[in-house]
Design goal:
The structure is a single chain. By secondary structure, this protein is of the alpha+beta class. Helix content is 35%, strand content 22%. It contains 12 helices and 13 strands. The strands form 3 sheets. Strands 8, 9, 10, 11, 12 and 13 form a 6-stranded antiparallel beta sheet that branches. Strands 4-7-5-6 form a 4-stranded antiparallel beta sheet, covered by helices on one side. Helix 2 crosses helix 12 (320-329). It is globular, with a radius of gyration of 20 Å. It starts with a strand and ends with a helix.
Length: 333
């Protein structure tokens, strides 16, 4: 097939600028885009790349000139603003072009963490108790709230805004962190119940018929038992920090068969309720008592070869190139 690999840049691209896997990985720090591009080439597709920053016309003109059979959509922002992420698939829909991954409605639902929680509550899915501290009128008190709490921006991703200070043992700590989020990220702050337990990632692929891959887990091997364990920005992206504290991602520790089946059913339910398409990852917490709480859903998770989604697929016997082909096959219009 003719495949256009579409991704965002932190700078304007030159007219007709093309990218190799090496350039994407080493010069642009885009390992996902590099891995996907290399896989598409190995699969024998006719591939062209388009890096976008703030030029909508570049997308339209490339679609008209190259006439791809499918767009492999890896964009996460436009004009360096992640709030614009849903607008790219919306544009592709208007152009009647097939593209991979989530549609605009699924992205809008999942990017607003509060709206997503309300939808899940309607579908009787357990989520943490939560309140919002609006940027326009920050909360001054918390009543009848369950502590400890966890505080984060309502619309950021990739653990942006999550640090050790996100864990609050009291109303004073929670409100102070919420005010910091309001000012630093210029957005509302989500104050939610902290769920103590294992953090599992459930990777799902498909549109109508859904495949749930074996769960992955994040391990905190060097963090003291009495300290809270959660994925801060550093815990996700700082290799030196991860090594120091023994933080790693891997196949989930053994789960009872009935629990594994329950997790798969829950993953499908959340995926459908939040209108995720193509591929997604559901993040959950599993308590020592076996209670499952959904933290959030992530449409279009990272597809880098060494990240959780691809590794979960590999655990199910689906090697990387075959995974990329299946994602292509799931592309919708």
């Amino acid at each position: 097939m003719k495949v256009l690999v579409l991704f965002d840049l932190a700078r304007p691209a030159s007219a007709g600028e093309q990218f190799s896997p090496r350039e994407l990985k080493e010069l642009e720090d885009k390992p996902t885009e590099a891995d996907v591009l290399a896989a598409l080439s190995r699969l024998g597709h006719e591939v062209e790349t388009l890096g976008v920053f703030d030029d909508v016309l570049a997308i339209i003109e490339t679609l008209k000139r190259f006439t791809p059979d499918v767009v492999f959509n890896l964009t996460e922002s436009f004009h360096s603003n992640r709030a614009n992420e849903p607008n790219i698939p919306a544009l592709l829909e208007l152009m009647k072009v097939r593209y991979t991954g989530a549609k605009a409605d699924g992205l809008i639902l999942c990017k607003d963490k509060v709206l997503a929680k309300k939808v899940l509550l309607y579908h009787r899915v357990r989520v943490p108790h939560f309140v919002i501290s609006p940027q326009s009128r920050p909360l001054k008190r918390l009543r009848r709230f369950i502590f400890p709490a966890f505080v984060k921006p309502i619309g950021e991703e990739s653990s942006d805004g999550i640090a050790k200070a996100s864990f609050a043992r009291s109303a004073e700590e929670a409100l102070e962190r919420a005010r910091f989020i309001n000012e630093k990220f210029q957005c509302d702050a989500l104050i939610e119940e902290y769920i103590d337990g294992r953090e599992l990632y459930l990777s799902v692929m498909g549109n109508t018929k859904l495949t749930v891959f074996p769960p992955r887990e994040i391990f905190f091997e060097q963090i003291p038992e009495d300290e809270p364990k959660f994925a801060t920005f550093k815990a996700k992206w700082d290799d030196a920090y991860r090594k120091k504290w023994g933080i790693r991602n891997g196949p989930a520790r053994e789960l009872p068969p009935e629990l594994g089946e329950k997790l798969a059913r829950l993953a499908r339910k959340v995926y459908r309720a939040l209108k995720v398409q193509g591929l997604g990852r559901i993040d959950i917490r599993l308590t020592a008592a076996g209670e499952i709480t959904v933290i959030e859903a992530n449409p279009n998770p990272s597809l880098a070869r060494d990240e959780d989604f691809a590794q979960a697929a590999a655990s199910a016997g689906l090697e990387y190139d075959a995974l990329i082909q299946k994602i292509l096959d799931c592309a919708g219009a």
